[in-house]
Amino acid sequence: MTYDRAYWEGLWAKTLREHPDKVARRPPNAHLITEIASLRPGRVLDAGCGHGAETLWLAAHGWTVTAVDFSASALAHARSTAEALGPEIAARITWVEADLGAWTPPRAQFDLVVCLYVHVAGSVDETVRRMASGVAPGGALLMVGHRPIDPATGKPTAASGQVQVSVESAVAALDRSAWELVVAEERPRAIAGTGVDAVVLAKRVM
Ligand SMILES: C[S@@+](CC[C@H](N)C(=O)[O-])C[C@H]1O[C@@H](n2cnc3c(N)ncnc32)[C@H](O)[C@@H]1O
């Protein structure tokens, strides 16, 4: 399986066509809500925003969001959902269609960069560093990956075959003289048997 633009575009087009109700019901990510609860809203990058559940939640909570994905269908859906929520929320979001395998955020421009469950096509180390380069001093980076094997059962998860960040890979990519680790842990998913999430929250100290 190749998790490239054609794969994701096909998956989003099919999912949005066949299960729009399920997509609309999907709540924003629980790790995001928990980990950024104490942060003051500012500029945030949602890298791999999908259908926009987190982007919309962030905009509704006062953040100015740059939302990047390479699926045109997911972005179109997200944009129209934002517009339906009203001009105030829609105006806080900039939608960018780009490939995160190559796209580099503007340097040190964000108070928060989030990258949730994105398959990494190249090197994890390089991807984490590239996403981290967008964080301004004093800002934060939240990376979350679904691990491919469920440690409780030893069985493959829905992320099997994908390369997503692990705690070790994300931590290893961050220069500890510039980053303070706030969270670096694996958390079991709510539904038993669906595996664990690697959650890394780091604060840029310089
Ligand atoms: C598993 S979904 C996660 C979406 C969202 N972050 C969430 O937590 O629900 C992965 C998303 O990353 C996007 N994606 C994967 N690889 C990408 C890449 N190289 N460039 C841009 N977007 C990518 C896909 O289109 C998809 O929307």
TrEMBL record:
Pfam families: Methyltransf_25 (PF13649). CDD domains: AdoMet_MTases. GO terms for molecular function: transferase activity. Residues 44-139 form the Methyltransferase domain. It comes from the Bacteria. This is Thioredoxin reductase. Keywords: Transferase. Gene3D superfamilies: Vaccinia Virus protein VP39. InterPro entries: Methyltransf_25, SAM-dependent_MTases_sf. Transmembrane segments: none annotated. It comes from Sandaracinus amylolyticus.
